[in-house]
Amino acid sequence: MLSFDELWELLTTQDESVEIEAKKASEVGKSCWETEPGLGGGYLLLGIKSPQDSNGNRYEIEGLTNPDKIQTDLASQCSEIFNIPIRPHIELATKDGKTVIVAFITEAQPTEKPVFIRNQGLPKGAYRRISSTDQRCTEKDIQLFFQERSYQTYDTTPIPDATLDDLDPEAIAAYRRERQAINPNASELNYDDQRLLFALNAIAKHPTQKGEYCLTFAGLILFGNAIALRRYFPMHRIDYILVEGKEWVSDPDKRYQSIEIREPLLLAIPKLITLVLNDLPKAFGLEENEIHRRETPLIPRKVIREAIVNAVMHRNYRERNPVQIIRFSDRLEIRNPGYSLKPTDEFDQPGSKTRNEKIAAVLHEVNIAETKGSGGRVMLEKMLEANLSLPLFVSNRDRDYFHLTLFTHHLLDGEDIEWLTQFKNYGLSNDEAKALVILKQGGIINNLIYRVTNDVDTLTASQHLRRLRDAGLLEQQGKGSATCYTLNPQFLPKEKIAIGEATRVDTENSNLDSSTPERETLSGQSQIPNLDSSTPETETLSGQSQTPNLDSSTPRTETLSGQSQNPNLDSSTLNPQQLSLELFPTTEKEPLEDRLAKIGKRTKPEEIKNLILELCEIEPRSSSELASLLKRKRKYLLDEYLTPLIDAGLLEYTNPDKNDPHQTYRTVPK
Q1: Do 252 and 367 have their domain in common?
Q2: Residues 36, 354: Cα–Cα separation, whole Å
């Protein structure tokens, strides 16, 4: 159980989420409890005023006047008003002299769900936690909960009309061949085909015809022939789409080429991997003492393999839509129905949640898939090793889809370095500079991408991203674990502006034909979709340095303030000193960048004031941005420096409304 201080930090940096809900004391009787699956439980904080109710447009600690009574009421409600008794773990905490309540409610067992308010019944009395909102369960939600009570996944569903004649002998042979290579002594290899398929849950006893067998859903998807797959599940195909250029059908005369793959997964997966790898741009290399060059796909094979396997293994087969693999000139997009059961901001962590257990088990036995939850981590590692931009994961729980984008461009090249010069007055760290490059290339960033790129923890990543937002460089989309950021359009390269506008599709435009890839909405729940800037060298997940030091034989590259002598070097050949931005102009006295770097606790107040005036003379800055640059707490900076400078007529507000949460300050012209 997290402490209140930890929860408060998460609440103020990431807002409410599926795991944390904050309420005033008067709201105890409202819909505080949800029956949301797969979260392990959630926290309720009582005595907190929401941004909508506070004057400062942020969470505030209101405190409780009678915490003992509220504890009693809370425990009584949990015990009496629901269809099953709930036993929350309740603790009191004190912050700034005010008392609050922290309640942790463990997730109910599958056999106990759905949990609902007894006097309202189903479905009205059952709620789900979607992002930071409470929503009533639908009939579809209720059906899902009741099915989970039996501990049977959808892929075990028998299909009475599908007989053993609908099997593809080649798929069965492929299973035996691959299983034999991995474990020659596997006992199931001694079974005949019928017994083997029954052991794999690929067939089941017919529900009405005694002594007969029928295929299960897993059996048809894994081993069914193309005719049976078309007859029973025509939309459960895989579409491989080749698009000219970087945008979907940008030229109506040059649409796209599409290949429909309707084969059992055991045959379709190897074919897809080969198809995609053959189409990707190739990198050329010549090994030492070799005379023949080697061609390797720009995106590592293991990344392509993991991406395709995860799409077909974890997709929601209840939804009758195809998996789409779309090849653009600069990226590969893989889109499948079914949001990720594992939050995308935990993709770099071990642990797996499987929607289709029987399908996953068979793919694991033939070494096509792993079941340790390391697929996301492998993709992140391999993309970093190849010095490519990190994959973009977008999972939307409301609309039930998952999108993965794999970029074919390098994380940092000469063009990116030149583009970064426009930010030289923002006091960017190397970590923040890399984040902006990712936004330039991919259009979106979240906590996971930031923390993996720069090797920092979650809270540090949140603080850095919020600083960039407060400085006006980023725009925030979504809340809680769905929080992501886009680049302020004024900083987009000219050729990217149209693309950036195209991505801002209204979230209500969800009725596109399934054959037409839909643009990502930046408000999608990236649960898609994350470094301490003082660390001079960033380690990748595998321990490899992204920025190894150059030896004396490596051509020298100037910093962004000068001309690059070798603009084609990527970030794997640049050391941190060479990546550093010249953040501030050099004058006759010591450069402003150097003076900021020397700031400490003993820096004289007059020097702090001079730095504030110089920074705000370059351009207006927010109090949060100044606090970050000057290494001071924001409230202290406001009370001790900003307000006195305004009173002295040396600094002024850019907005007449002093309480504007986005207020910035500028130096009064002399």
Answers
A1: yes
A2: 17
pLDDT at 219 (0 to 100): 96
How far apart (Å, rounded) are the C-alpha atoms in residues 637 and 639? 6
Beta-strand runs (E) in 533-656: 621-622, 651-653
Which of 152, 196, 176 has the alpha carbon at shortest distance from 356? 152
Do residues 356 and 480 both lie within one domain? no
One domain, residues 419 and 547: yes
From 260-264, 332-336, 434-438, the region with the lowest mean pLDDT: 434-438
Determine the Cα–Cα distance for residues 155 and 173; give it in Å rounded to an integer.
21
Which candidate, 476, 468, 483, places its Cα nearest to that of 345? Answer: 483
Q: Which two tokens stand for residue 470?
A: 């407060």
**Strand ranges in 433-584 using DSSP code E only, listed in sequence order:** 474-477, 484-487
CA torsion through residues 332, 337, 339, 342, sign: negative
Q: How confident is the model at residue 563 (pLDDT cuts 50, 70, 90)?
A: very low
Boundary of a domain, candidates 148, 169, 186: 148
Quote the crossing angle between the two packed helices 301-314 and 357-365, to the nearest 10°. 150
In this structure, the strands spanning 41-46 and 20-23 are parallel
Q: Higher model confidence: residue 27 or residue 567? A: 27
Nearest to 621 by CA among 662, 664, 668: 664
Measured distance CA(473)–CA(487) in Å, rounded: 6
What's the token pair of residue 645? 């400078």
What was the pLDDT predicted at 499? 40
CB-CB contact of 361 with 499 (8 Å):
no
Residue 32: CATH number of its domain: 3.30.950.30
Please indicate, yes or no, if residue 585 is contained in any of the structural domains.
no
- Assess whether 484 and 567 both reside in one domain: yes
Find out whether 33 and 115 touch, Cβ atoms under 8 Å.
Answer: yes
Are 224 and 279 in a shared domain? no
511 falls within a domain: no
Rounded to an integer, what distance in angstroms lies between the CA atom of residue 560 and that of residue 541? Answer: 28
Q: Would residue 650 count as lying in a domain?
A: yes
| The two three-digit tokens of residue 479, written as one number | 């809340």
Average pLDDT over residues 317-333: 90
Residue 586 inside a domain? The answer is no
- pLDDT single digits (tens) 255-274: 678 889 999 999 999 999 99
How far apart are alpha carbons 417 and 549 in whole angstroms? 18
Tell me the pLDDT tens digit for each residue of 383-430.
878 878 778 888 887 788 899 999 887 766 667 778 888 888 888 888
Mean pLDDT of the 451-476 span = 86
**Cβ(82)–Cβ(33) below 8 Å:** yes
> Given the DSSP bridges, would you call strands 323-327 and 238-243 parallel, antiparallel or unpaired?
parallel
Of the candidates 451, 460, 615, the residue with the CA atom closest to the CA atom of residue 540: 451
Which carries the bigger pLDDT value, residue 141 or residue 533?
Answer: 141
CA–CA distances in Å: residue 67 to residues 62, 72, 74, 99, 100: 12, 9, 10, 7, 7
Residue 311's CATH number: 3.30.565.60
Domain housing 651: 592-667
CATH of the domain at 491: 1.10.10.10
Buried residues in 374-392 as b, exposed as e (16+ CB within 10 A): bbbbbbbbbbbbbbbbbbb
- For residue 168, give the amino acid letter: D
Q: Does the pTM exceed 0.85?
A: no
Q: Cα–Cα–Cα angle for 317, 266, 147, nearest 5°?
A: 30
Query: Tokens for 633?
Result: 């707490």
Q: Answer yes or no: do 19 and 129 share one domain.
A: yes
Asked if residue 168 and residue 50 are part of one domain, the reply reads no
Residue at a domain's end among 386, 407, 428: 407
Residues 392 and 455 placed together within one structural domain of the fold: no
Tally of structural domains, the chain: 5
Nearest to 665, CA basis, from 602, 633, 609, 617: 617
